[in-house]
Amino acid sequence: MRILAFICILSLFSTAVRAQEADADALLRAAFDNWRAKSSDSEVTMTVHRPDWERSMSMKAWTQGDDFALVRFTAPAKDAGNATLKTDKGTWIYNPKLNQVIKLPASMLAQSWMGSDFSYNDLSKADDILTEYTHKLVKTEETGGDKIYTIEAIPKPDAPVVWGKLVVKVREDGVMLAETYYDQDMKVVREMTTEKVGEVGGRDYPLVMVMRPADEPEKWTRIETSSADFNIDLPSYLFTLSNLQNPRR
To answer: Which residues form the signal peptide (predicted)?
Structure first.
């Protein structure tokens, strides 16, 4: 029995040592680098499912660095032209029917985008989790031959964020597998899971990601990436208010 207990303790110690070898900050940065790269150009379909209806929208998305993102809807016709621009100066939306550009206050960035379960921050791939949270590696496991890391992110003091905690699962090659969102009372509010990983733009990538509210499991929103290019040159005018309203691309 003493030998068995010693083996169990040694096993737990070895697991802790292996966990310490991986850096939580670096793992999260790798996941965002894989997701966004230095720049990206992608085509995406978003499907919003509700118990009594379902609709799909197509969009083009561009990102550059940590601060710049542009997403423009291309279909269906009633949604085409709607766009969101994020820069280091703020976030704006454009409604082509009104021909109006509106700057969103920070308080609205966590709200639903186009009636989906994703927020403005989600679809612009905001990196608040990297800058406004402290990170701790809480679990390391192997699934299907891949090492999976679970990282807990806690807001820094006075950080301007809405979540009480985030828990992220990242594959060892930087593919994001899941993200669970907790409110200030540490209750799960929603969960995003990667349902398909495949190669796009020369890298393994979360091709299908689904967001589900915790208290309404019959509702979900699926994001499917059909094509993407990474680390490409993008024109300087792309992330401007002028291009948001009068698109050249």
So the answer is: 1-19
Which two tokens mark 16? Answer: 């802790």
Nearest to 180 by CA among 172, 170, 171: 170
The domains of the chain, with CATH numbers, are 23-245 (2.50.20.10)
Q: What is the pLDDT of residues 118-177, one digit of tens each?
A: 988 776 556 788 999 999 999 999 988 899 999 999 999 998 888 999 999 999 999 999
Q: What are phi and psi of 74, to 5 degrees?
A: -115, -20
Burial category of 189 from C-beta neighbours within 10 Å (exposed 0-12, middle 13-18, buried 19 and up): middle
Q: Burial-class residue 76 by CB neighbours within 10 Å (0-12, 13-18, 19+).
A: exposed
- Express each pLDDT in 52-93 by its tens digit: 999 999 999 999 988 899 999 999 999 999 999 999 899 999
DSSP helix/strand/coil, 107 = helix
Of the candidates 245, 216, 221, 231, the one whose C-alpha atom is nearest the C-alpha of residue 63 is 231
